């Protein structure tokens, strides 16, 4: 019986050549991570993203981050004139817990590179950086108010009405959700009317070129965030998988809108946790009727046009919080438990890193059944890992390729001053 897994060495960016070839003409490349606090995941995603941009013409990176914060970064990397604002200061916009997720030195290096890459390019060719997530209810409402008041008539009344509906809840979406989850009085009609009015208003504008279209898109996207965030927080209080599905469907809708914005030949790079980019149909998520971006992207654009890359490691360190909103700390990631995907790779590779391809793994006797696959969220308790943190997975079907690192290190967080508004606890799905 064949027991050796087919692997490729992974030591430098040049070792990504086979992966670039396998990606081919895919329109959407999904880059995962097994935690939100591991340096190697960020640095290798950066290395691959640079090559996708330079060699295959990908137009934007979209991440598991809030739309308003990421759009500030997008504006900074597309500035016409050279800016003296360091990237580390630009990233202070990520000031809500978990601040380290995008406010870190690894992302600083990416932002600086994107600035330099964009500078000689015409505005319409500059690479973008966007947020896919749904949590920014209050920030998006504020952005909409600024926009409609600047534009004048149209959606002003609807925007003010929506904002006033949420005001009694002290900018706390969890307080709002708890108050309205089981009653008929909520703000759903107000945010839906705001989105309708805003779409009508922006349709009447005739922007010239992508930069102007992007500003119009920004306003409408903030309204869409408000609509789906309102749905998300109500569903979250009720429990079950509904809130997860609202969130991932929103992220997929945002990705589709971004691809449409950039034109029929556009290409997207997605940075999200493995639980979002690895096809949910090949995990136990399917049993709970959960969908994710990886599944939805394959269904929308065809499996041949979507390439999903999972990431994982055997042991090391990670930055996370011991509970929701806790001070982040560097924690030890213990050796992966036996009968897991990570343990299997450690045994096979004897401490080396590797690149693996699903086409080469299918039919292998070690992978005929599901294996536990490590998943670490922003909340992590290493002492309990043997009892959780593993997602039963059919590896060759969940991903198209996998990057394995035997030993990994904690992300390098920026010293960001944290805003006092901590988003609601997303347990048990703090990915």
Automatic annotation (TrEMBL):
Alphabetical list of Pfam families matching this protein: Erythro_esteras
CDD domains: Ere-like
Gene3D superfamilies: Biosynthetic Protein domain, EreA-like (biosynthetic domain), EreA-like, domain 2
Organism domain of life: Bacteria
InterPro entries attached to this UniProt entry: Emycin_Estase, Hydrolase/PRTase-associated, UCP036794_erythomycin
GO biological process: response to antibiotic
SUPFAM superfamilies per record: EreA/ChaN-like (SSF159501)
PANTHER family given in the database record: ESTERASE, PUTATIVE (AFU_ORTHOLOGUE AFUA_1G05850)-RELATED
Name of the molecule in the record: Erythromycin esterase family protein
Species per Swiss-Prot/TrEMBL record: Hymenobacter wooponensis
């Amino acid at each position: 019986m064949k027991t050796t897994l087919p692997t490729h060495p992974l030591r430098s960016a040049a070792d990504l050549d086979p992966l670039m070839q396998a990606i081919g003409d895919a329109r959407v490349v999904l880059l995962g991570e097994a935690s939100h606090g591991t340096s190697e995941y960020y640095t290798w995603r950066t290395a691959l993203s640079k090559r996708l941009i330079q060699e295959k013409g990908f137009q934007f990176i979209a991440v598991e981050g809030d739309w308003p914060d990421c759009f500030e970064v997008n504006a900074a990397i597309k500035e016409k004139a050279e800016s003296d604002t360091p990237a580390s200061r630009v990233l202070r916009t990520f000031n809500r817990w978990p601040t380290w997720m995008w406010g870190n030195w690894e992302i600083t290096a990416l932002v600086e590179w994107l600035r330099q890459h964009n500078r000689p390019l015409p505005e319409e060719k500059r690479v973008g950086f966007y947020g896919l997530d749904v949590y920014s209810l209050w920030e998006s409402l504020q952005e909409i108010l600024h926009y409609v008041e600047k534009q004048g008539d149209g959606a002003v009344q609807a925007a003010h009405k929506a904002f006033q509906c949420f005001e009694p809840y002290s900018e706390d979406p969890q307080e709002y959700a708890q108050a309205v989850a089981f009653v008929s009085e909520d703000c759903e009609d107000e945010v839906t009317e705001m989105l309708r009015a805003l779409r009508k208003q922006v349709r009447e504008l005739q922007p010239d070129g992508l930069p102007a279209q992007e500003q119009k898109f920004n306003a409408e996207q903030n309204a869409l965030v408000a609509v789906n965030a309102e749905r998300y927080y109500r569903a979250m209080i009720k429990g079950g998988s509904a809130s997860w599905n609202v969130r991932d469907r929103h992220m997929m809708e945002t990705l589709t809108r971004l691809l449409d914005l950039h034109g029929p030949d556009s290409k997207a790079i997605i940075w999200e946790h493995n639980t979002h980019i690895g096809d949910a149909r090949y995990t136990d998520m399917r049993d709970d009727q959960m969908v994710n971006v990886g599944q939805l992207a394959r269904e929308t654009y065809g499996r041949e046009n979507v390439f999903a890359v999972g990431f994982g490691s055997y042991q090391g360190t990670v930055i996370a919080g011991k509970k929701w909103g806790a001070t982040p700390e560097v924690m030890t990631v213990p050796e992966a438990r036996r009968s897991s995907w990570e343990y299997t790779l450690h045994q096979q590779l004897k401490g080396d890193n590797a690149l693996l391809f699903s086409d080469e793994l299918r039919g292998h006797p070690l992978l005929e059944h599901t294996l536990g696959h490590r998943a670490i969220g922003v909340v992590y308790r290493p002492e309990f890992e043997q009892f959780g943190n593993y997602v039963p997975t059919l590896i060759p079907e969940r991903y198209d390729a996998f990057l394995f690192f035997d030993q990994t290190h904690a992300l390098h967080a920026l010293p960001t001053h944290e805003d006092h508004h901590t988003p609601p606890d997303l347990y048990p799905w703090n990915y």
